[in-house]
Design a protein that fits this description.
- With 349 residues, this protein is of the alpha/beta class.
- The strands form 2 sheets. Strands 5-4-1-8-9-10-11-12-13 form a 9-stranded mixed beta sheet, with helices on both faces. A 4-stranded mixed beta sheet has the order 3-2-6-7.
- The protein starts with a helix and ends with a helix.
- It is globular and about 70 Å long.
- 38% of the residues lie in helices and 29% in strands.
- It has one domain: Ribokinase (UDP-N-acetylmuramoyl-L-alanine:D-glutamate ligase), CATH 3.40.1190.
- It has 10 helices and 13 strands.
- Bound molecules: adenosine-5'-triphosphate (ATP) and magnesium ion (MG).
- The site of magnesium ion has 3 residues, from loops.
């Protein structure tokens, strides 16, 4: 273990009771998530034979799975961790939109702020997955449904009005921007007045000025600053440049298997704190790990944890979901158990 990791391990073991205390408060927070909502679909079947119509496989359909994706994954993660969640977003007039609403309502999420756009489909990514008898499954093709148009202005305004009506009743706003059209100017403007705004956006971070925290991954951070993050120096420079570009209080760059780095500015001095990844073995699928980070750290902040401890909670939650296939969720119980095992077996190597 490097000296840095040893220090971090010591901090973590001293902080276990405190972190568990924050986890116990996850179910007390009210969060509004404004997000680009996606439905991830998996249609799975067994290969039956080759078609006579074309040189393609014929699958016998076995089952269909539907799970929240994109910003909907952030929403779902927050709810599974116990938060009281309201969602503001847009679906199409279709079965996929209905499915997404049902999935949300089944776990107690308030969907009053989901508006239906008759002109644009629910963003849906459908994977066709095939397997031969007694063999592993494999994705064959993916079909995406989405529109390149923005929602009409009156729909943008309805969404913005809903956000404004909620802003005084919640502990935090999470903006989960996957670039699918929810974050127009009126919607951004309505989301910013809260004192705790956490933004996860794939591009143009400067549209969200003076928020609490951004959580870009490395490619997003690189795109925003216009250069590569290759070493400690360029990482530090990127954190610094992102702080001045956005005037945010903090920047958390999530760095995949390298963990995450938290940047802040105090008295014109930039400081950075690094958190190593908590689990680097048995990593199956990192899709959606960023949404999990946002969910846990937001609930941490709302429960009174500082930014560093909240980021640790985000890192802990992410270390669990990367062991599952597809976008996944975790619970506070699982997070507590994982923290215990992490400390017992010292998995920070
Ligand atoms: N290969 C990995 N091994 C261990 N931990 C990982 C790995 N990949 C991701 N993580 C954990 O998940 C966190 C977020 O990952 P990452 O930086 O890839 O987010 P992301 O690209 O925004 O994800 P997405 O956009 O798919 O939700 C990391 O900070 C780390 O804690
Ligand atoms: Mg992300």
């Amino acid at each position: 273990m490097t000296p840095n990791n040893q220090n971090f391990y010591n901090y973590l073991s001293q902080s276990q009771a405190k972190l568990n205390g924050f986890l116990d408060k996850f179910n007390q927070s009210n969060i509004l998530v404004v997000g680009d909502l996606t439905l991830d679909e998996f249609l799975t079947g067994e290969v039956e034979r080759l078609s006579r119509e074309a040189p393609v496989l014929i699958l016998r359909h076995e089952y269909t799975e539907q799970i929240p994706g994109g910003g909907a994954n952030a929403v779902y993660n927050l709810a599974k961790m116990g938060g009281k969640i309201k969602v503001a977003g847009i679906i199409g007039n279709d079965a996929q939109g209905e499915a997404l609403k049902h999935i949300f309502e089944a776990v107690g999420i308030d969907t009053t702020g989901i508006f239906m756009d008759p002109k644009r489909p629910t963003v849906t990514k459908t994977r066709i997955v095939g397997h031969a008898r007694q063999s592993v499954s494999q994705q064959i093709v993916r079909v995406d449904r989405k529109s390149d148009q923005l929602p009409d202005l009156d729909l943008q305004m309805q969404l913005a009005d809903y956000i404004t009506s909620q802003i005084n009743q919640i502990d935090a706003v999470v903006c989960s921007d996957y670039g699918d059209g929810v974050f127009t100017e009126p919607v951004i403007k309505a989301s910013l007045p809260h004192s705790r705004v956490i933004v996860d956006t794939q591009k143009a971070l400067h549209r969200f000025q003076s928020v609490t925290l951004f959580t870009p991954n490395v490619p997003e951070a690189e795109k925003a600053v216009g250069y590569g993050i290759k070493d400690e120096n360029s990482l530090f420079q990127a954190g610094k440049d992102l702080l001045s570009l956005t005037n945010a209080q903090k920047i958390l760059i999530t760095r995949g298997e390298d963990g995450m780095s938290l940047f802040e500015k105090e008295d014109n001095e930039i400081t950075v704190a690094h958190i190593p990844a908590f689990n680097r073995t048995d990593v199956f699928d990192v899709t959606g790990a960023g949404d999990t980070v946002v969910a846990a750290l937001t609930l941490g902040l709302c429960g009174g944890a500082n930014f560093f401890d909240s980021a640790i909670l985000g890192n802990l939650a992410a270390s669990i979901v990367v062991r599952h296939f597809g976008t996944a969720t975790t619970t506070t119980e699982e997070m507590k158990e994982t923290l215990q095992v992490l400390l017992e077996d010292n998995l920070l190597k």
